[in-house]
Amino acid sequence: MRNLLGVYAVEARLAMQRQAQYRGAAFISILGFLIEPVVYLIVWRLVTTETGAIGGYGAEQFTAYYIVWTLVRVFNLALAPGAWDWWVQSGRIANDLLHPVDPFHRNLASMAGAKVVWIAVWVPTAAFLVLVFRPELSPNLFQVVTFFVAAWAGYVIRFIILWALGLVSFWTTRAQALVEVVIALELLLSGRLVPMAVMPPWVQTVSSRLPFKWTFQFPIEVLIGQVSAAEVWRGLGVQVAWIAAGALAILALWRRALRRFTAVGT
Amino acid sequence: MKGLTHSLAVVVAHWRVGAQYEVQYRLNFVLQVVESAVRLVTGVVAIRIVYSFTTSLRGWEEPELLAVLGVHILLGGVLATFVMPNMHRFRYEVHQGELDYALVRPVDTQLFVSARQISFWNLVDVVTGAVVIGWAVAGLAGRVGFVDAVVFAVALACGGVILYSVWMMFTTTVFWLVDLRDADQIINGLYDAGRWPIRIYPFWLQGALTAVVPLGVAITVPAEALTGRVTPGSMAVLVVVAAVTVAAARAFWNLGVRNYSGASA
Lengths: 266, 265
Fold this sequence. Notes:
The structure holds 2 protein chains of 2 kinds.
Chain A: H1 2-21, H2 23-51, H3 59-76, H4 81-89, H5 93-98, H6 103-133, H7 141-167, H8 176-189, H9 201-209, H10 212-215, H11 217-224, H12 229-260
Helix pairs in contact in A: 1-6, 2-3, 2-6, 3-6, 3-11, 4-7, 7-11, 7-12
Chain B: H1 2-22, H2 27-51, H3 62-96, H4 99-103, H5 109-114, H6 123-139, H7 146-172, H8 174-177, H9 181-193, H10 203-212, H11 215-226, H12 232-259
Helix pairs in contact in B: 2-3, 3-6, 3-7, 3-11, 7-11, 7-12
């Protein structure tokens, strides 16, 4: 375990240094990310000017929600399942399998390291959004600390989901359709499109029983103060449960996947 | 005139071969249907959620928003079928130093790099978009007359021309920037902003999506034409933007090619 922590530290630091060389590219990507929440924000501010607050969300709450959204989106970035197609089809995965540390840990750590640079680059873009839309956001220390815990936990859950989807590449090289469907479910049920408070009650129930909401909406609501302290603790517990369940699932899937893999050496 | 006929014959020949190549991979059709269905469902769900709370979004009603979504999907399908595959190949060739083979051909080089490939199954999106537009028209209950349909067709053609020109200009920057993967996020994000009518956006964003990167106007004005909201002024803006972007794309391409030193030894 201590060895593994060392590996995490080294991989994360290497990735951070690598990503720091491409900070301009990271900034441009983040600018691209901003457009989606800005559109949602404008639409919902317009709706609330006509209807008043919806499910506890008025114009100010929607504004704060979609601005924190941009930070959680950066936390949320994980290995895209599309990367697996290339990894498996090109046979490059054979190199990584020879490495003594499981590729899951190395990728989880290196994306986390790169994220630190991304978050630093995110700050000026967030400052721009705050200047333009003036959200009312004044979190206390508890909310800030639990937000960071929830956002990192959300990253781990989402990383596990996408890793599991990527493992499907061992069985079929046409996993794209499945990925599309899961990403669409995530869009609708995670709070990425709208906070669940806006959705019908049955959607809210479905959403709270799936992992997606705990990767996206939960960290946002922790920071903007839409959940009580008791709900924060409960939510963190749910996140831990999803990480444990996901880790077990990955372990089982990974062993089966490796049995299917045959590499041709040169 | 003879040169134009020759160029068009080259384009049609490429499209025919491209389509024949693609129809071999029939499973891709199924994948494309799933992808289109996902796009349609998420788009419609977003609209339904908004209109479950209000009947009008800055004067836009639900069937009108459906018309915008339909135009967005349809033009997105046109982009994915005819434009994107060519732009990806163009970028790849600049990376690999293979663009020289395209530049020495005895046809118009911009036309050649823009029309060599076709992603046939993406036509599913064009059909999906057309169906959504039909659905919107049904919801508009007799508001769409013959003149509206003609204006819509003209506006849609202008929209298509703008989209091609914007993507062409964007891709031409590869001569200087080489790697555009990160910038893809921005242009795709801006296209997605066109899923809602730009008239609901603040003035600065409307201006940006009309004059700076005119992707918004390319989608909203055709939808306005269909729903009878279009004014002669906005139609004129659309036509002018289309003409300017075509000319700018041409000038930028020429500048890029002059600047390109090639990769051959």
